[in-house]
Design goal:
The chain is built from three helices and four strands; from the N terminus they run βββαβαα. It has a four-stranded mixed sheet. 25% of the residues lie in helices and 22% in strands. It is an alpha+beta fold and 105 residues long. It has helices spanning 46-53, 77-90, 99-102, and strands spanning 9-13, 16-24, 31-33, 57-62. The protein has a single domain (9-95), classed as Rossmann fold (3-Layer(aba) Sandwich), CATH 3.40.50.
Length: 105
């Protein structure tokens, strides 16, 4: 299945309903794809996502209050990073985070 044909899944995290899409190669280290402020998981270029999904498992997220997710929108990058971390933990992934990104946490 490709990016455009993969359906959203939903997860409850801290009383917020989170929309996400999982695709690509299972049992590889997942690459969590976060979009810019106010964008949704539908904003990605399908060709890019399908190309990345050939090598890695991808998790595309709508953060709380954005797109198909329910909840309160974070107003700072730090708060968005904390939301993303809570979602990653709820999805039960281990957390190998690169240093440039982890500085927001």
């Amino acid at each position: 299945m490709g990016y455009l044909s993969t359906k959203n899944s939903y997860l409850n995290v801290s009383s917020e309903r989170i929309a996400y899409r999982k695709l690509g190669k299972p049992k590889t280290t997942p690459l969590v794809m976060l979009v810019h402020l106010g964008a949704t998981l539908d904003n990605w270029d399908p060709k890019l996502i399908d190309l990345l999904a050939k090598k890695r498992q991808l998790i595309l997220l709508d953060l709380p209050g954005v797109g198909a997710s329910k909840g309160k929108v974070a107003v700072t990058i730090s708060k968005m990073a904390k939301q993303a971390l809570a979602i990653i933990k709820a999805l039960e992934f281990k957390l190998p985070i690169d240093k440039p990104q982890s500085s927001c946490l």
